[in-house]
C-alpha cells in the first residue's frame, strides 16, 4: 500500500489538487474533514477544547464556532499550539481509522490530505510527499481575495503555518500552482505519473493483497515443513 502525503499552505490550491486526485479515482483521506468530526458537539475533542477555551467559542446550538476559535488561535501561537496538542490524538486516530477502512477495501494507493503533514510529523509514514507551492506574494493576494480580508489578517493566517518554502524543501514532489488552472492540471498529470508507479515490494506487502499473499506463503511453508518432518 502506498500512502501519499499531500500538503501545502493556505490558499495554495491544495484542495483543488485533492479534488483532482478524487476525480482520477484515488481515495483521499482529508484531515480537515476528520478535524471537523472530532470537534462535533459531545465528542472527546469537543469536551477538551471547550474546557480549555471556554463556552464563549460555542454557537447557540452548542457546536464550536470555528470562526471564533480561528480568530483566537491565528493571533496567539501558544493557544494554537494548545489546540493542536488537544486535538492531535483524536485527529490521528480518525485518519488512521479511515486508512484502515480503505486498506480493508483493497486500495493500493491512498492520498492523505494533511495541512499539518510536517508539523505533525506524519510525513514519516507517507511516501512520496507532495507540496502544492505558490510564490508567497501570490499566496497573500489569493487569500485576501478568497476570504475577503485585509493584508494584515491574511498574514496572520499565513504566518500561523510552517513557511511554504520550508515545506517545499522537505517535499519529494512539488506542484507549482503559480499559473492558471490549466497549468495546474498539466503539472498534476506529471505528478500522477510518479504517484502511479508500480508498488515496491515493501508497499505491496503492506497492502491487503500483500498481507494475504504473506499469510498464504507462511502457511504453505509451515505445512511443507511439517510434511518434511513427518517423512523423516
Automatic annotation (TrEMBL):
This protein's GO CC annotations: cytoplasm
Pathway the protein acts in: Cofactor biosynthesis; coenzyme A biosynthesis; CoA from (R)-pantothenate: step 5/5
GO molecular function terms attached to this record: ATP binding; dephospho-CoA kinase activity; hydrolase activity
GO BP terms, alphabetized: coenzyme A biosynthetic process
EC number: 2.7.1.24
Keyword Ribonucleoprotein among record annotations: no
UniProt keyword list: ATP-binding, Hydrolase, Kinase, Nucleotide-binding, Transferase
EC top class, as a word: transferase
Pfam families: CoaE
NCBIfam families attached to this UniProt entry: dephospho-CoA kinase (TIGR00152)
Role noted for this protein: Catalyzes the phosphorylation of the 3'-hydroxyl group of dephosphocoenzyme A to form coenzyme A.
Similarity remark: Belongs to the CoaE family.
PANTHER family recorded: BIFUNCTIONAL COENZYME A SYNTHASE-RELATED, DEPHOSPHO-COA KINASE-RELATED
Protein known as: Dephospho-CoA kinase
Species per Swiss-Prot/TrEMBL record: Artemisia annua (Sweet wormwood)
